[in-house]
Amino acid sequence: MLTYTFDEACGTPLYEQLYQNIKRDIALGRLRAGEKLPSKRSLARHLQLGVVTVQNAYAQLAVEGYIEPRERSGYFVAELDESLPPPEPARRPHPAERRREYLLDLKTNRIDAGNFPFSVWSRLMRRTLSERSSLLLDPLPHSGASALREAISGHLRRFRGMSVPPENIIVAAGTDVLYNLIIQLLGHDLTYALEDPGYNKLGLVCRACGAKTAYIPLDSWGMNPRSLEESGARAAHISPAHHYPTGIVMPVSRRRQLLSWAVRCGGYIIEDDYDSEFRFTGRPIETVQSIDTSGRVIYMNTFSKSIAPSIRISYMALPDELMAVFSKKLGFYSCTVPSFEQYTLAQFISGGYFEQHLARMKNHYKALRGQVIAAIDAMPFRRYLTISEQHAGLHFLLRVNSPLSDGDLLACAETLGVRISCLSELTHRPEPRFEHTLIVNYSGVTPEQLERFAGLIRSCEMK
Amino acid sequence: MLTYTFDEACGTPLYEQLYQNIKRDIALGRLRAGEKLPSKRSLARHLQLGVVTVQNAYAQLAVEGYIEPRERSGYFVAELDESLPPPEPARRPHPAERRREYLLDLKTNRIDAGNFPFSVWSRLMRRTLSERSSLLLDPLPHSGASALREAISGHLRRFRGMSVPPENIIVAAGTDVLYNLIIQLLGHDLTYALEDPGYNKLGLVCRACGAKTAYIPLDSWGMNPRSLEESGARAAHISPAHHYPTGIVMPVSRRRQLLSWAVRCGGYIIEDDYDSEFRFTGRPIETVQSIDTSGRVIYMNTFSKSIAPSIRISYMALPDELMAVFSKKLGFYSCTVPSFEQYTLAQFISGGYFEQHLARMKNHYKALRGQVIAAIDAMPFRRYLTISEQHAGLHFLLRVNSPLSDGDLLACAETLGVRISCLSELTHRPEPRFEHTLIVNYSGVTPEQLERFAGLIRSCEMK
Question: What's the CA angle centered on B274, arms B268 and B279, to 5 degrees?
Answer without folding.
Answer: 120
